[in-house]
Amino acid sequence: MDPSVLRSGLIAVHLFGLALGAGGAFVSDALFLHLIRDKKLQRHEIAILRITSKLVWAGLFLLVVSGIGLFLQDPERLLQSSKFLAKMIIVFILTANGLIFHNVHLPFFDALQGKALARTPGMLRARRWLSVSGAISGTSWTAALILGSLKQVPFAASEILTIYALVVGCACAIALAIEEWLIPMKR
Fold this sequence. Notes:
Layout: H1 3-35, H2 43-73, H3 75-79, H4 82-112, H5 123-149, H6 157-182
Helix pairs in contact: 1-2, 1-5, 2-4, 4-5, 4-6, 5-6
């Protein structure tokens, strides 16, 4: 097969994976904020969150598989690329955050089914972790999208990751403020 055709196909799959994963993550976050307006999560609402979570995983899978294919076409150049190295760390963080969401937050939602969110034992701590997880997700998908769209980045990987960490920190602070405003704890 012509290497340029293979590369074009891998890029198409990579972009589709990015669209599916990032789109699923953004929709999932927006849906969650909409679904908790009544301060409860019902079974069908949790099922919707599980479906969007599967879309994110499908996108991440396509992104990783096509990314490996792209990497194998030119490993020497990519291993010297600060953009590539920073993006790989961000994708690792996305994956770890996704595993936490799938294995910690979704089971927690099941336990909350039908209960008032503001009065559930341990809810304050769980809400904060969930808000931080959402901020990490949104920021990481956005960072991967931006880095992927740039032809070159005039920064070292450490500089890119420092900027990323600062943006994640700000996003977490904003998410924590929003969750406190959305569901204030009874005092």
